[in-house]
Design a protein that fits this description.
The chain is α/β, with parallel strands linked by helices. 41% of the residues lie in helices and 13% in strands. The protein contains 14 helices and 11 strands. Strands 1-7-6-5-4-2-3 form a 7-stranded mixed β-sheet, sandwiched between helices. The chain has a 4-stranded antiparallel β-sheet with strand order 8-9-11-10. It is globular, with a radius of gyration of 24 Å. The protein starts with 22 loop residues before the first helix and ends with a helix. It binds pyridoxal-5'-phosphate (PLP). The site of pyridoxal-5'-phosphate (PLP) has 14 residues, from helix 6. The site of pyridoxal-5'-phosphate has 14 residues, from helix 6.
């Protein structure tokens, strides 16, 4: 038997952490932090939905010279809470209606804490077979939840942007290995799609943008005509829930155009795809399971804290072929048959174990409760539309409630008036929402996917918008 390695001078190993915090202090601070988090969660509706301060004021609270000596832990935590955490958007606030909210569940927060506390790395099978399996199972459950066929590759990443980049890299390597083809997309795709294509080396001339139809959807007949006339098209990008209006492109029609020609159909469902879990929305998402790749963002409408995005790829081995590395210093971590090394399926090598929180959420709550929470967001958008229609003197609906988004305009309102309304409500702290632009027209937009939102929250917010 080897004698135990003696602790470094001045650093007892028993019950201490790497920088010498004693066990009792670790426990005390951990409980304090847990209480701070739960205290905030139960009072989240009382705080401003969004809050910012000037760079100078924030620096004043958090800055100063490099600390050379230990400081009081409680005071440091208090400073961080009051000086940093108070100044942000609270995507889980019941009146946070801007962009896409992030109403994280506590189950998922617990999963995140465990992964961080155990310092998990989900890269190689040898170094993280347990966390890899939790991620594989979470991906299987998510496939089943969305009604996708089992099998194929999947990987979690930081969010929709990296998930889209991951999918499009696999698409290019599979159907456009020379990188000389072109990509077809609509004028409503998320900005992360053209950015990913630029990063992958596609020049603007080979990113073909088609105008959407009256419902802001990619028209299948225009896609059919374009791919028939332009044999350089290799990839078609569709949206399953645009960020602007929630529109879902005609996925089944697009799949029927792409499949016989060997074109890769990528579907960006970062915001909306989770709604495919609802039987009453099935028709809207018909064809989703035929996508060659699909992205969804569990940190939006699947009640996960930031960050977690997800890529599914159906063509066998496409992710592994695109991302596998086998350098000499990773040889002893190589996966055998049946083992998955996620470091070879996407652009990150060292990566967080994002599957833990998703696994824990499904396991603790079950799909039925999660579906009900998603359904609530859709009902709330309809309710918001009703309230807005009830005040037709002041509001006009621009796009009716679709998934959990409704867009509208102030009668006689222009971009400046709309932006002023957002600024005013956000500054008051009562609620926050956002503007966007549809075919050059400025609109107001509510995204209502927090199941804690009440009809009173909607009414109060809409009344305050009208009062401007
Ligand atoms: C939010 C969103 C993205 C980007 O996702 P991030 O998690 O912010 O990187 C991509 N596509 C759509 C449709 C989105 O709504």
């Amino acid at each position: 038997m080897q004698p135990p390695v003696p602790p470094a001078p001045g650093m007892p190993r028993d019950g201490a952490d790497t920088l010498g915090l004693p066990e009792a202090e670790m426990r005390r601070l951990a409980h304090r932090v847990a209480d701070l988090v739960v205290d905030r969660l139960v009072r989240r509706g009382d705080e401003p939905a969004i809050r910012a301060d000037s760079p100078a004021a924030l620096r004043e609270r958090l800055g100063g010279p490099l600390p050379e000596h230990p400081g009081d832990a409680d005071a440091a935590i208090d400073t961080l809470v009051a000086g940093a955490l108070a100044f942000q958007q609270h995507g889980d606030h019941p009146r946070y209606f801007a962009r896409v909210p992030g109403p994280s569940s506590f189950a998922a927060i617990l999963g995140e804490w465990l992964g961080t506390g155990f310092n998990c790395i989900a890269t190689s099978w040898a170094g993280g077979s347990g966390t890899a399996t939790a991620e594989l199972v979470a991906l299987d459950w998510l496939r089943a939840f969305l009604g996708l066929a089992p099998g194929g590759e999947g990987i979690l990443s930081s969010g929709g942007s990296i998930a889209n980049l991951t999918a499009l890299a696999a698409a290019r390597d599979t159907v456009d290995p020379g990188g000389e083809g072109s990509v077809l997309l609509s004028d409503q795709v998320h900005a992360s799609i053209p950015r990913a294509l630029r990063l992958l080396g596609y020049p603007a001339a080979r990113i073909r943008i088609l105008p959407t139809d009256g419902a802001l959807r990619l028209p299948a007949d225009a896609v059919a005509a374009t791919v028939a006339a332009d044999p350089s098209v290799r990839i078609v990008v569709a949206s399953a829930g645009t960020t602007n209006t929630g529109a879902v492109d005609p996925l089944a029609d697009l799949a029927a155009i792409c499949a016989p020609r060997g074109l890769w159909l990528h579907v960006d469902g970062a915001y909306g795809a989770v709604a495919a879990s609802l039987p009453e929305e099935a028709e809207r998402f018909r064809g989703l399971s035929s996508a060659d790749s699909l992205v969804t963002d569990p940190h939006k409408w699947l009640f996960q804290p930031y960050d977690v995005g997800c890529t599914f790829v159906r063509r066998p081995g496409a992710l592994l072929r695109t991302f596998a590395m086998a350098p000499e210093y990773l040889k002893d971590t190589a996966a055998a048959a049946g083992e998955t090394g996620f470091g070879n399926l996407g652009p990150e090598l060292t990566r967080r174990a994002r599957g833990l929180k998703l696994w824990l959420t499904f396991r603790m709550h079950g799909a039925e409760a999660i579906r009900a929470a998603i359904r609530r967001g859709i009902d709330l958008a309809r309710e918001a539309e009703e309230i807005l229609r009830g005040d037709a003197r002041r509001f006009e609906i621009v796009t009716p409630a679709t998934l959990a988004i409704v867009t509208f305009a102030l009668r006689g309102g222009d971009a400046a008036g709309h932006e002023a309304a957002v600024k005013r409500l956000s500054a008051e702290g009562f609620a926050t929402f956002s503007t966007t632009s549809l075919r050059g027209r400025s609109v107001l937009r509510l995204c209502t996917l927090n199941p804690l939102t009440t009809p009173d929250d909607l009414r109060g917010t809409i009344e305050r918008i009208a009062a401007g």
